[in-house]
Amino acid sequence: MNYYELEPEHNHFYTLLADVTHKCQMECKNCYIPNRDIPDMSFKGFTNFVQRLPSRTDIRLIGAEATLRPDLPEFIKMIRKSGHRPTLLTNGLKMASFSYSKKLWDAGLKSLGLSLNGADDDFVYQQLDGGKYAQRKIKALDTLLKIGYVVHINCILVPGVSEHVPRRLLELLESYAILHGRKASPRFPLMLRFKNVGQIGRFLDGQASYDVSDMLGLLCESFDVSMKEVLGKNKIDGFSECNAFLFPINTKIGKVLVKVTDWRVDDDGVPDSGSRRRGRVTPNFKVAPFFEHVKRNEFGY
Length: 301
Prior knowledge:
- It is a single chain.
- The protein is 30% helix and 20% strand.
- The chain has helices spanning 43-51, 72-81, 98-107, 122-129, 134-147, 165-179, 212-223, 227-230, 290-296; strands spanning 15-19, 58-62, 85-90, 111-115, 150-156, 191-195, 235-236, 239-240, 244-251, 254-261, 278-281, 287-289.
- The chain is globular and about 45 Å long.
C-alpha cells in the first residue's frame, strides 16, 4: 500500500474529504467508516488546516453524517471565506427540511452529493440501508432542487436489488427539475453517480457484486446510450482514471452527467488505490490518500 502523509502546504489532491463527525442516524449495510465513537473534528484545528492549503481546493464535508454537526454552517462559511469550494456528502434526511437546507445555502454551500440508493423504493432502502427512507430522501431531492443546489445523486448498485433504480433516479431528477424550472448546466451539471459495493469497513459480505463492465452495461441500457459512446471517457476533474467513467446523457432537462466508479478492492484491500484526485484530512490535520488512510484505520477513524 502506498501510504503517505503531507503537510497541508504540500497538498496535491484536487478534493479533500473531512470527517467532521462520525455520528449518524442511519445504520447502512455498506459503510466504509462505521465507527461512531470518535470525537468530532475540532473546528479551530480544521480552520488552521484549511488556511494553510496552497491553492483553491474542493473540500468535501463528510461523516458518517456531516449534517449532525450543529455548527456545520460555520464550517461552510469558513471554507468559503478561505477561498475554497465547500461541498457536502449527505444521506439527505435533514435536507428534507427547507429551512435547514436554506441555512446551509445561505452559509455558502451550493453543491452536494445526495445518497439515494433506492430512488423512491423502500424495499431497496431496507435491503441496503436498513430502513424505510424513500419519502424523506425524495423530499430532500425536491427541496434541494427548489432552492437551487447543484445535486449529485449517489447510488450503490447491487445485483438482484437495484437494477431498476438508475432509470427511476433519472425520472425523479427530471420530474423535480422540471417542477422547479431547473435545467442541467454545463458549468454546474446535475449528475447521477453509481458505484458497486466496496469491500471495506462494513459491507454486504457474500452478496453478488457488479464489476465496472456490468455497471456500464446496466447504465447504457437504462439510459439508452451505446457502450461505444462511454468507453474512453475516463477523465475525472482533469485526472485520467482506470476505474471510473464520466459521460453525458440526453434528458428532458438537458445533458446530465453519469459517473461510474469501481470500488472493488486491490490486493491490499484498497478501492481506487493510488488516486491523486481524492485525499483525506487526518486526525492530526495532515493530508493522506483517502482510501489508503481509510484502510489503514479500518473500523477506526
